[in-house]
Design goal:
This protein is α/β, with parallel strands linked by helices and about 300 residues long. The protein has helices at about 45-50, 75-80, 95-105, 110-120, 135-150, 165-180, 195-200, 220-225, 270-280, 295-309; strands at about 5-15, 20-30, 35, 60-65, 65-70, 80-85, 155-160, 185-190, 205-210, 210-215, 225-235, 250, 260-265, 285-295.
Length: about 300
């Protein structure tokens, strides 16, 4: 794949001396969904604003579709759609007029068939002639996406697209994003919802204190950096873990009925075979075994804590 967005050594320092971005390098491939994860103040929104030309970088270079954002700002902005965190819409305007107006701002010729397709994709077709004030919060967010897509951009930025949205509607939004990808739109989203990145992103970038800690395919991140847990259900509860099993650093459940062994899936030896043998030697009988993969959230928390150390 080709990089449609290329960020090279981008820095942003504000007048007060605060450095929001510290030499960020990031290539975003055409047609992918990439999620940027990071705590508040990590630099996610600053990075998006800089790529979109809203914030001026202190140093570095950015190209979109091969065009430099400095020398070809208008052309670049035409290729980008941005959905901000804040819902700012004219309450008494209709949905279709709101979207038409956004398309016109970019100098695009009227295309009712295209706008109707957008509204259908976003489940807004039946709200086409409704006033914005009549819509729910989730529907308003969909209108923001429709506005961002109105001028047929190649790249769509979603800044916390499901903030404050209930779980059911959040999953609907995931399906909408997946459909936009199928239509060829490159999507970059920032999110605090780890499951959001895990569910829909092709790649995950972790940003902290203005620096990109890593960018990896989601599946690779899970497999290479994740931990697995072996949960041993005992036939008979135990009051304490035998001293002979101390090297395994086992965790005993509150009721004494389960032992949890955490191991690194990258290691040459997991230690599971010797653990099972030593359990039997220690006189502990097993009723059942199960494994659990660590979640992306646990990986992310580990990375952030490691970066803070």
């Amino acid at each position: 794949m080709n990089a449609i967005v290329s960020v090279k050594d981008v820095q942003k320092t504000y007048d007060g001396g605060f450095q929001a971005l510290k030499g960020v390098n990031l290539d975003i491939e055409e047609g992918e969904i990439i999620a940027l994860l990071g705590p508040n103040g990590a630099g996610k929104t600053t990075l998006i604003s800089t790529i979109c030309g809203i914030t001026t970088m202190t140093a570095g270079s950015i190209t979109v579709g091969g065009v430099d954002i400095g020398t070809g700002y208008r052309k670049v902005r035409r290729m980008i759609g941005l959905v901000p965190q804040e819902i700012a819409l004219e309450p008494f305007e209709t949905v279709i007029n709101t979207v038409r107006f956004s398309r016109g701002l970019f100098g695009c010729a009227p295309n009712e068939a295209y706008l109707d397709r957008i509204l259908a994709t976003l489940s807004l077709a039946d709200k086409k002639h409704s006033q914005i004030r009549e819509l729910s919060g989730g529907m308003k967010r969909r209108v923001l996406i429709a506005k961002a897509l109105s001028h047929e951009p190649r790249v769509l930025f979603l800044d916390e697209p499901t903030a404050g949205v209930d779980v059911e509607l959040r999953k609907d939004m995931w399906e909408t994003v997946a459909e936009l990808k199928r239509q060829g739109v490159t999507i970059i989203l920032t999110t605090h919802y780890i499951e959001e990145a895990e569910a829909i992103a092709d790649r995950v970038g972790v940003i902290r204190s203005g620096e990109i800690l890593l960018v990896e395919p989601t599946a690779t991140l899970m497999s290479q950096m994740g931990k697995k847990q072996l949960i041993v259900e005992l036939a008979h509860p135990t009051d304490a873990i035998p001293d002979a099993l101390a090297p395994y650093d086992l965790a005993l459940s509150a009721d004494g009925g389960k032992l949890t062994y955490t191991y690194d899936i990258k290691a040459d030896r997991t230690g599971i075979t010797s653990l099972l043998n030593d359990l039997q030697t220690a006189g502990l009988q097993m009723r059942d075994l199960q494994t659990r993969q660590s979640s992306l959230e646990e990986i992310f928390v580990g990375l952030v804590e490691e970066g803070a150390a």
